[in-house]
Amino acid sequence: MRYLSYRPRHCIRWIAAFLLPALLAAADGVSPIEARFAQLRNDPPSLYAFLLRMPKGADLHNHVSGAVYAESYLRAAAADGNCLNLQAGAIVAPDAAGSCGANVPAARLNSDNTLSTP
Questions:
Q1: How far apart are CA 91 and CA 77, in angstroms?
Q2: Based on the structure, what is the number of domains in the chain?
Q3: The pLDDT value given to residue 84
Q4: How many Å apart are CA 95 and CA 81, to the nearest integer?
Q5: Edge-to-edge strands of the sheet including 104-105?
Q6: Average pLDDT of the chain?
Q7: Model's pTM, two decimal places?
Q8: Looking at per-residue confidence, does 77 or 15 come out higher?
Q9: Which end of the chain has fewer CB atoms within 10 angstroms, the N or the C?
Q10: Is residue 34 assigned to a domain?
Q11: Domain around 80
């Protein structure tokens, strides 16, 4: 019966081929995937192809706060009588008198399609 012999050269090759790149990426603080994502960030067609190849199309983790459409938040803000701070891009409560002041009433979104952030 022949036993596998211990060959230091094979161990060194294994470390060089598999472990060293992982250690270098960890030491650099940027994984190869993160680096590729950053490279493709400004190229929408390539970024789409990159994400599409990921499991579940890169939708691996989802929170409800990120899954609700912005329109749903805006409808709720209008129904509650809230205001929109266009400078900050935020939904804000009206002042004590019920006025939006320099902000825009959220209900105005139903009739004004020209609202935009500066």
A1: 7
A2: 2
A3: 93
A4: 11
A5: 90-92, 83-85, 104-105
A6: 76
A7: 0.44
A8: 77
A9: N
A10: yes
A11: 68-110
